Structures are given as structure tokens and as C-alpha cells.
Amino acid sequence: MTWSLVLGLLQVADPQAPPVSTSVFVIATVIKMIIVFTVLMVGVALLTLAERKISAWIQDRHGPNRVGWHGLLQPAADGVKNIMKEETYPDAAYKPLFIMAPALAFIPAMLTFAVIPFASPLPTSKGLIEMVVAPLPIGFLYILAIASLGVYGIVLAGWSSNNKYSLLGGLRSSAQMVSYEISMGLSTVAVLLVAGNVALNDIIWQQATTVWNFFGLTVAFIIFLIAAFAETNRLPFDLPEAESELIAGYHMEYSAMKFSLFFIAEYSNMVTASALLVTLFFGGWDIPFTLWDNLAPWSIGKTLLTGLFFAVKVLFFLFFYMWIRWTLPRFRYDQLMSLGWRVLLPVALVYIVIIAGTLLILDLLGIRPGALYGLILGILNLVLAGVLFLILDSGRIISPASGRVEADQLRRLRAMRSRSPLAAPGGD
Fold this sequence. Notes:
This protein is mainly α. It is 64% helix and 1% strand. The chain has one domain (2-385).
């Protein structure tokens, strides 16, 4: 019976088929779990190779190219090496939490992807199968709740190692993630106001029928993007594992596969953050400039094509993550905290008020979601983003790494220094 149900899932059906039964729902969920977990784990392994290849390309090097064709088997070689390495335990470490911490960092990274839709529904003889592992009506809130648990693994890893550098890395991570989680959550309130729902499929539908939120909610996208970099501990916000200051931070005492689990968790969080960016601001699996993919009748071709578009969008943001890492320098810690509390948090709060007021005015004027609706939001966000960048570029809110001095001011300062009785003989 079970095997017949599995075969039945592969048969195309009438789009008006009745809802699936409980047994079919369970079997389909298990199949989706296996597929998503496999794709994520294989993808994370290949992302390590992509990071090394992209860094080599940016730095004009060859990168790994000796294991397999063009180095494609390098992740497999690294995995075998980590499995074969000896597991070491520091004498002063608290072993129960020391062993548990990598798993606590890894598990939330896997769970958060469960509610993200990655393609249009698949029609079968047993009914429509949603292309999401767990189609929760509150999927967005689930992501925020589960993603916030990842910090426990990092904090416990730093504390249980009983190493001052690891502890500092764990403390930095907890402060950083708390600081930017608030801004990330507030930036998405604007998305929920426009969509009128917390279900991710409804957010995708809203963008398909009006305009992608990247254009209609640009400031929210900028805040979310910056917070996503901080939440995943990626450059320029990798202060918890700053090599120049903390050697390796919270995972300094780890070895073998426990060490690898932290990197698997980091890349899994990158995939989830990229998928969430695509879903909230770039239409998810929606194909732009057409409603063909969003309306019945559903087909296998639509499912495959929308899944391909979703994957391309996610890969773009993963490339962006790596591009930023090998392009920008690390923030100072005071700059990191200043950006989170003095910039992103107030901007997110003011932005919510502006968007809520704008939506209320549009509703009073009788302007419903559509082309004009999206155009008005786009122009408003273009103006707000320009004002925001002008304020940030002044260097007065976040202290810059070097001061900006005009040429005449520099001449006056040099003249004052030369007249000073403390000036060294011979000028500069």
C-alpha cells in the first residue's frame, strides 16, 4: 500500500483534485525532508569549494584544482580528512556542553529551511503537494524563533572550552546576534504590513501581483541584508572569530568533525538567510513579468521551472556573501555595535511608522495593490534610501576608520602645528 502511494505521487492529476489524505501527506513530507536535507548537505560541501574558488578568482589565484576535475572532489577530500582526524578534548573543558555545542549550532541551521517554499505546488493523483517541507501558516515567525536558537551553540562552545579567547568569541557573538536580531525582525514588519499575512506563500503571491518588495520596500531590504550578514557571523561582521584578535574565537579548541559542524552550520545559515531574502524581497519562486507560474492549472513543468528560478536567486545571494567577504575589511567592534543600536534600530522603527502611514493613505485614497501601488512605494523607498545613505556617508553616526578632512582644513592644521612650540624641528 505504501509503495502504491509513493507511485501515485508521481502521476500528474487534475488540478481540481481533492486534498491529499493523511498517509499521502506524511509520505510526501518524508520524501521532501530527505531531498531538502540531501541538497543542503551536498550544497554546503560545494559552497566550501565555491568560496575557495571565488576567493582565488578575486585574488588572481588558481584555487584548489588537484583533487578531481578542476578540484571538484576537494570537499570530499576535506570531509574524509576531518572524519579521520583525532578528536581532542582540552583538560579544563566542560565536556558535556563542549560536545553538545556543535550540534546546537548545527540543528537550528537545518530546521529553519523547513518552512521556506522553494517551488510552485506539484499536482499528483492524490492532490496538490506543496513544495515546502512544513507548510506552516506562521512560517515566518517560526524562522525568527528557530534562527535565534543558533546563538546558544556558539555561546556554549565559547564558555565550555574554558579558554579566554573562546569565551570572548562567545560573548561577542551573543551581543552581536541580540543586537541585530531586533533590527532584522523589525525590518520584516514592513513586509508583513504590505502582505497582510505571515504565511510565506501569501508574501510570494503579494509580490507576484504587485511588485517585488526589493523595489517597494528597499530600506527594509537594506536593513535585513545587513542584519543577515551579522547574524551569520560573516565579514565584515565576523568579530566572534576574528583571527587577528581572538585566534579563531569560539571554535578554537575544537577539532575533527566537531570543528567542521560549526562551518556546516555557518554555510547552512547562509543558505537559509539567502532563501529568506529571496522569499521576502525577490518574489521567492515567482518568475518575473508573468503570472503564468502563480495560477492554476499546476504542472510538473511549472514546479521544475519555478524551483530553478528560486535556486538561481539563492545562488546569487550566496555569491554576494562570498564577494563581500573577500572585498571588505572587518568592522571594529565599536562600529559594529554602533551600527546595530544607533542606526539600524532607529531607522527600522521610523520606517515602520512611515510605511504604515503610507499604506493607510493609499487605502483612504482607494489605491489597491497593483502597478500604481507598487510605483508609489518604489518612489518613496528610493527617496528614503537616498536620504539614509547621505546620512550614513557623512561619517558622523558611525565613526569612520579614518577622518575626512578638506584640503584647506588640512593646510590650516599643518600651519597650526608648525607654529606650535611642541612641533618637532624639521616639519613632519
